[in-house]
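Fig. S4 source data, part A: sequence.
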Amino acid sequence: MFVFVSLLLCMGSFINGGLTSRYKEDTGMMVTRSCYDEERQALLGLKANLVDINNTLNDWGHKEKNDCCQWTGVGCDVHTGHVTQLDLSSSYGYVLSGNISSLLSLLPRLEYLDLSGIDFQFNNIPNSLSSLTDLRYLKISNANLSGSIPHQLANLSNLLILDLSNNFLSGPIPDSLGDLTSLTEIHLSTNRLEGVIPTSFGNLPRLIELDLSRNLLNGSVPDFVRSTFLRQLDLSRNKLTGNLPNSTGKLSNLRYLDVSSNSLTGVIYDVHFQTLDVLIYLDLSFNSFELNLSSNIGFKLLTIKLQSCKLGPTFPMWIQTQRQFAYLDISNAGISDHVPGWFWDLPPRLRFLNLSSNDIKGMLPDMALFFEDYPGMDLSNNKLEGMIPLLPSKLAALNLSRNRFSGTLSFLCRIDAALTFLDLSSNLLSGNLPDCLKKFYKRLVVLNLSNNSLSGEIPSSLGFLSELQALYLRRNAFVGEVPTSLNNYTKLRFVDLGENKFSGNIPAWIEETLSELYALVLRSNRFNGSLPSQICFLNNLQLLDLSNNMLVGNIPRCFGNFTAMATRRFQDDITSHSYSSYVATLLNATSLGATKYCPGKDGGFVTCFTDEEALFIDNALVAWKGTQRQFERGLYLLKSIDISSNKLYGKLPSEMTNLRALISFNISNNKLYGEIPKHIDQLRYLDTFDLSRNEFSGNIPSSLSQLTLLSYLNLSYNNLSGRIPTGTQLQSFGYTSYSGNPQLCGPPLIQICGPSPPPAIVVGKKDAEKDGDEFWKSYYTGIGTGFVVGFWGICGVLFLNHQCRYFLFASLNSMKDWIHITTALHFQSLHKKFRW
């Protein structure tokens, strides 16, 4: 078919005379002519295979624009008229979709092809592209391609740049690509490529950039001894093993090296950097490297990422030679030392500093430093102590959590309003919340002050933080009511005010403004009053913990209306909050950006501006299977209601069984009564179910045995009766799940059940009255009928049979005489007794 179409196009070109020469033979001057007809038809064939929702290619084939060289995205050679460039890429989302037409092979002089950003709907890369032997640039990134990389691409001997990144390609990287000795850039990141990295890649003499990150590649890192022009090497987020080759230190032009998030091992010595004098970006994090570097290394790094590498136990002194860094991450590096004083003279171009998850000791010095922009700083999870000193006024993010800091929060009043993230949790901080927190209203996304000794009432000024998405005040000593000013938090998704001394009613305005809320934790406070029905309208709510308060009244029937708990829809992004870890400009700027070093066209690096974002993952303490458990990364999977340890009464609404995606349900230690809903089996995903210490009565519904995912059950200390339904699910729990119900019997309890009574017929009041009337009617009718039958039966026998008649009356006379004599003797005996 393809050959036939090609012949037709060629014949059409021949009939139409083809393209006349663009040069007159006698003058050599260029003449304007339309493009080749077969190439025009090939482009129209390409358009026919694409869906163009925005009419991006509207001018293709337009009757007033026949010259395809003038079409959108098409470029032609000014001398020959052949189509040499086709750029349909889009950075604005998918505006084109379809598949790659094989008619592209009819553009034999094509040198530049960029189809990035087109939705190719998981189609494969056609082998026909290999016929474009003049091709120098092939870019089809972020295009939803699948399948393997065709080995036929090795026919593109003139190829300089190959970019197939951000697709769904799988399988091995063809070894034959290493034969393309003209290649300067290879970008195959973010898809599912597996197997080893072809060793031939290390022999590409002109290679400048190699990006194979975010795949499933295994094996070792090859030697790149012949790739002497290599400037950027990114092998991160694969499954590579072995050591980093010593030959890496001979890549004298290398400026960017990233092998993070692999399974690489070994010791990193000076030899690995012996000629890397121009290296500015180094990321060895999330491997099992041990660094043993001297202070004589020659490079001056701008970015140093060594998270989870072993640098300690002493503080790495070679960092003293690196006084130009903008980004330093030596977290979780086994450092159990004091930070030397020289270190705190931080570079003014600092963008981010991370010393977290070590055992760093001592006190922080005053850091009244000047930074050109607004960096982020993470010193969390160490053993730092004392008062929080004077900190740099320009900070975008501050994390001092899980240390031993003491004192008040007054230091926050000296920090500029650019703060986007503040985590001071798990320290020894005390005092009230300062009013100056309100100045962070434009940027602050996460505020975590939990696990301290903070006290007092929540100031109404806290309600100014309109950008806040996560609020943690857990485990402090806050008192008073929740201020109504918090209803300004229209973007709030997570609230944890648990384990304080808050009092009053649960605010009824929660539903009005907190429509994005997915987690509400008010446990272990002094809230009273009833459960507000307004909570029922929080459609995104999937974690509700109101336990251990003084709430009274019934459970509203509308609690069965929580939309997010009724479906199995999971959103893993709701538990994370993006914040700026570095802000490059002042708050009055129209856009906030971060200085970032991006590869430039000349092989060097240029400064680009973008927001550098980090993620904060929510965490929650949940009563889980009888104990408290902290949920973090898996929190989005949890759908839980805990209203235990209150003073709630009434029946459990049957509407609660509408929450079919509920995983944990705890209503223990209340005064609830009535029967367990018979359709409890609708909660098919229930894992934890606790109804203990209430006043539930009646039988355990047999449907409970249908909850096959149930792993924790507690029905103890109620008034349940009857036989525990049989089934491996309910008998697998220990006796403590059922103890405290005296009338309950059957395994796993030792009480043996008697014979099973016939099933009781449950009727309504009117039916019972009707049945009662029918009963008495039948009763009296039966008596009347029996009397008539008995009377006439006896009388008939006496009337018809004289012998029976004689015997009956003789017997009656004898009975009369016996009664008379017995009575006389009885009275005579009494008379003698009383006379004496």
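Fig. S4 source data, part B ends here. The CA atoms of residues 705 and 726 lie 7 Å apart.
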